[in-house]
Amino acid sequence: MQWNLFLSSTVRDLEAYRRAVQEACRRKADTACQLSEDGWTGGYADTVSKCRQRVAEADGFILLAGYWYGSVPPGCDRSVTHLEFDSALGKWGQQKFPPMAVMMPEEGSRAQRALQLTATRVMKREQQGNPQFDPQEHDGRLAQFHGILTGTWRTVTRFKDGPDLREWAISNCLSWQKAGRSFLDAAQGLPDAAEEQQVSDEELGRLGRQLQIQLLSELLSEVAAFPAVPALACVVHGGDLAGQRAFLQALPGQCLAGFGARQGPARLPLGGGDPSLLPAWVAKTLGLPGGGVQSVEQLAERLALALRERPRYFLLDRIGELAGGAAAFREQLWLPLYQALSQLRQDQPFAHRLLAVVATTARNRRPGTPPARNPSRRMGPRTIPGCCGCRAWETSTAGGCWPGFRPWRFRISLPAAVPPWRTGP
Questions:
Q1: Residue 363 in 3-state DSSP?
Q2: Of 69, 204, 248, 260, whose CB is crowded by the most CB atoms within 10 A?
């Protein structure tokens, strides 16, 4: 039987977010996600009754809280969303590990800015259409509700953007389902149950990605036969629902064990979209000694010393946030760095190499554009099954390394709703 989640939120400001969560949970967590007020007909009394009934029938509950309090039904002192939270609290609030989550935007995040702007627009429209609407009363009710959520509820999960929210929702659903199976085992007298079961980041990233993890492992094994290659970059791409960050989180425990200390994926800091800041960011991420890295040449010199000791890697999520995107990363950092490392390797040999795995979101295919070829049908040194080389970048050998291991040659596709051998444009 499919697991049933009730997703509570205001509609006018959070519609896009909740639809995205609904789709992500359906695809990645085998969860039927019931949305608050979704297609409900009838008046307020009917809506309140339905929301309480849906919460009572649900296996779990997630509340998305933004900056629009929502409509207050006649005769009530709370919004429909507030009433839904009260119903869920009454059902699960006394459990040790309740299948409930409250998710709110992180302070200063992209999600917070977007939702605050949307809420302002909703309030302006409400003022125009409803002379009795009082903005100060609205703000007071919203502040009181947020105070209840942050002050009395156990934990509020903060999300930075839409992909972050979707990953949290999927992880919660899988954890609750796992815990539910554990409690069922306990009722049947089976051992090792009755405690909350958490789905780790690594488990989430492995879901449906065995082929891609295997491909990257094979790539790392094959490149070992070419000692002249000082560095290798791989792009992980897919649609908004592909779970790129979760996939990056799974890699250290799957195929990067020989690269030293484990480290998770990083993102460029706020305001870090300038490509000229990349050398300093990479040096800091890799923990290179000395500090003060300002150029690709300085980064290469520090790396050459570090690569005498052991391999190094970094995982970078959302390179689309960089000004110029993946192309800027390649042209302004990776190719110059690769060339500098190649030269340094000739002058002062070092035994190990650098690996970069970066994630981006695939653009939607324009109408009339033919679909991408299926590279999994070709086997050979220039093509890794399930990966697609970006044809626009195939012309550069960047230092004359073996063509099958160009410094920016491999792109792993993470499809959301198509088989893993299909790739995007």
A1: coil
A2: 69
- 425 part of a folded domain: no
134 found inside a domain: yes
Q: Based on C-alpha coordinates, what's the Rg of the chain?
A: 25
The identity of residue 299, as a single letter, is: L
Q: Do 210 and 159 share a structural domain?
A: no
pTM of the model: 0.55
> What is the rounded distance in angstroms from the CA atom of residue 221 to the CA atom of residue 125?
59
Final residue in a domain of this structure, among 166, 182, 199: 199
Domain count, the chain: 2
Q: What is the DSSP string of 148-166?
A: HHHHTSS-EEEESSHHHHH
What is the residue-level pLDDT of the chain in tens, covering all 425 positions? 678 999 999 999 999 999 889 988 888 888 888 887 665 555 555 777 888 888 999 999 999 999 999 988 888 889 999 999 999 999 998 888 899 999 999 999 989 999 999 999 999 999 999 988 999 999 999 999 999 998 777 778 999 888 889 888 988 888 888 876 544 444 444 444 444 455 566 666 676 677 778 878 887 887 777 888 888 888 887 766 567 777 888 888 888 877 767 777 877 765 567 888 899 889 988 888 867 888 999 999 999 999 998 889 999 888 888 888 888 888 999 999 999 999 998 888 888 889 888 888 755 333 333 444 433 333 223 333 233 333 222 222 233 333 334 444 456 655 443 222 222 32
Same domain, 179 and 256: no
